[in-house]
Amino acid sequence: CRCSRKRAFQVAKSFLPIMEWLPNYRVKEWLVSDIISGVSTGLVATLQGLAYALLVAVPVGYGLYSAFFPILTYFFLGTSRHISVGPFPVVSLMVGSVVLSMAPDDNFLIDGSNATGTNGTGTLIDTESRDAQRVLIASTLTFLVGILQVIFGALQIGFIVRYLADPLVGGFTTAAAFQVLVSQLKIVLNVSTKNYNGVLSIIYTLIETLEKIGSTNIADLVAGLLTIFVCVVIKEVNDRFKHKIPIPIPIEVIVTIVATGISYAADLEKKYNAGIVKSIPRGFLPPEPPDVSLFSQMIAASFSIAIVAYAIAVSVGKVYATKYSYAIDGNQEFIAFGVSNIFSGAFSCFVATTALSRTAVQESTGGKTQVAGIISAGIVLISIVALGKLLEPLQKSVLAAVVIANLKGMFMQVFDVPRLWRQNKVDAMIWVFTCVASIILGLDLGLLAGLLFGLLTVVLRVQFPSWGGFGNIPGTDIYKKVKDYQNVIEPEGVKILKFSSPIFYANIDGLKSSLKSTVGFDAVKVYNKRLKALRKIQKLIKKGKLKATKNGIISEPGINNEVFETDEEPEDNEFPTKEVEIQVDWNSELPFKVNIPKVPIHSLILDFGAVTFLDIVAVRSIKTIIREFERIDVRVYFASYQDNLISQLEQSAFFDDTVRKDIFFLTVHDAVLYIRNQMTYNDNQDPIFEKISLMQDSKEPIEFTETNHPDDEFDVQEE
């Protein structure tokens, strides 16, 4: 339990990564680049903070707080050097859906004498109380998301993000982009709609927006369309000429400054009734504790938001970590964002993650470390303290247009679907299903549905894996699937089956059916047919129509049976010895009408090279399979098994006197060579024949007796 100074310092560095990189900071090489990057990123973060606040349905000024506070703690706790921490449209929309469901406009209807605003349909709304309640809900949700993220990080379950496959994330973010577009469209048009929640809510919102398109505010529409057009064009220029332009053109900042000036000079609010920001609070609000009583209503949504926010941040961080050859710690990122959200939740912020466009600006302008992030926070701080008043004439439609312009990258993911369909149809189905489910059910339920669908595809692929009969490439020890290769030859009397999946209770029936298809018969039916044939022989012998001799069975005195050839002339009904061994060729036609399937093999090899584990149901079933084949004289062998399978079989009491370890071989070729040697040594014993021992003490007809055996015994001799 002792802890050395070195060990304590390592533990401290794992919780405070800044202790790892800050002492190695190259001031002369990196500081200027970080300053330039921080200023550029800070300007973009300021505008995006204002814009994304519209998605959360809170006053735009709180977006500035959300672009400032999370950076302060991530600077000390984060392991990524390049991501820009702050609001992201998908996460903001998920927070906004919770806010609108818990604080709809209908909860704040008041008499006209006490109203501070209207909803556009004549009903008066107390907007001041509504906004205060929504800010409280958003900050409480942020606090709860932070707690969950810290718990996930402490429990070291950062691996959970691995279940969010790229097709799933692509479909989810595309659906989120569609929802963001619809939610911002009504702001660009300046039309009011009801707050819909639940299934098909975004569809209802879109329908109502289009129904009210006749009441569009022309000033807001023109400003929004111009902003979208200019932003998209300039962003395309930035992408195409990024190697020639040292610093990307901060088009959002330029458009915002120009739009604010035009709105102020033309007085668009009074002359054209344009929707403007109106008021941005100066300075900071005092920290407030969360409303713990709301936790129970938002715990489900907070879980999905915590996972999505973390997944987005880590996926972006890994891209730049790979590019610049350093590693990020997934569990530490959980803790870093958790602490950031707890801290920022106390200051009326909404959930923070990272934005792709903002991070791209920070990296492309030369950002080397999170020093650039701190400087960008300083730019946001200046906006909060000094510049907020100057942005009050800005039209909300311009901010909404900035949000829409930043969705281009997400919508371009639609073109991934044809490529996915060509490469892997299952992944394409996951993409489409997640996208459609997220649009119809909402982002939280859609993400859950997509995750379950993705896991279902994995289960189905394991439950119905690839399998096939294998054969040998002549002159080699290589075995390939018979259906795929023309010159592959199956060893004589041997069938080789490869089952490419772990074997457990869900796919054990698949193993049995693949066995039947490979060998060409059902071992249980063959055994039952042979028992029926033996009973028939018994009856015929009793009636005197058949005679048993050491050379076979005779149908009539003095006439050889057509089926059982003899080397000597048959004798009378008397037997020279008490024990006579009769060999029945089950692959020939018998002298009575019993249809017995042919068994053209004497050995079966199961290639378990792709089997990683077995459950208890699989172990019992495989043992049953061995006995079913053994009783019809087909030996079962195992090859290319994983080392851990032997220990699993031992723990499951698989081995006994009849099933031993000598049926396991390292390779398929080893098993084939062993079988050939065994057949060479046993030339005088043909395993295709069923041996029946008939005992006779007198000249009375031979009687066959049946013995009831326990289910786990299959002794055909006694039967």
From TrEMBL:
<feature type="transmembrane region" description="Helical">
    <location>
        <begin position="136"/>
        <end position="161"/>
    </location>
</feature>
<feature type="transmembrane region" description="Helical">
    <location>
        <begin position="249"/>
        <end position="266"/>
    </location>
</feature>
<dbReference type="InterPro" id="IPR011547">
    <property type="entry name" value="SLC26A/SulP_dom"/>
</dbReference>
<feature type="transmembrane region" description="Helical">
    <location>
        <begin position="50"/>
        <end position="77"/>
    </location>
</feature>
<protein>
    <submittedName>
        <fullName>Pendrin</fullName>
    </submittedName>
</protein>
<dbReference type="GO" id="GO:0016020">
    <property type="term" value="C:membrane"/>
</dbReference>
<feature type="transmembrane region" description="Helical">
    <location>
        <begin position="294"/>
        <end position="313"/>
    </location>
</feature>
<dbReference type="InterPro" id="IPR001902">
    <property type="entry name" value="SLC26A/SulP_fam"/>
</dbReference>
<feature type="transmembrane region" description="Helical">
    <location>
        <begin position="398"/>
        <end position="415"/>
    </location>
</feature>
<keyword id="KW-0812">Transmembrane</keyword>
<feature type="transmembrane region" description="Helical">
    <location>
        <begin position="430"/>
        <end position="460"/>
    </location>
</feature>
<feature type="transmembrane region" description="Helical">
    <location>
        <begin position="218"/>
        <end position="237"/>
    </location>
</feature>
<keyword id="KW-1133">Transmembrane helix</keyword>
<keyword id="KW-0472">Membrane</keyword>
<dbReference type="InterPro" id="IPR036513">
    <property type="entry name" value="STAS_dom_sf"/>
</dbReference>
<dbReference type="GO" id="GO:0008271">
    <property type="term" value="F:secondary active sulfate transmembrane transporter activity"/>
</dbReference>
<dbReference type="InterPro" id="IPR002645">
    <property type="entry name" value="STAS_dom"/>
</dbReference>
<dbReference type="InterPro" id="IPR018045">
    <property type="entry name" value="S04_transporter_CS"/>
</dbReference>
<feature type="domain" description="STAS">
    <location>
        <begin position="484"/>
        <end position="675"/>
    </location>
</feature>
<dbReference type="Pfam" id="PF00916">
    <property type="entry name" value="Sulfate_transp"/>
</dbReference>
<feature type="transmembrane region" description="Helical">
    <location>
        <begin position="334"/>
        <end position="356"/>
    </location>
</feature>
<dbReference type="Pfam" id="PF01740">
    <property type="entry name" value="STAS"/>
</dbReference>
<feature type="transmembrane region" description="Helical">
    <location>
        <begin position="371"/>
        <end position="391"/>
    </location>
</feature>
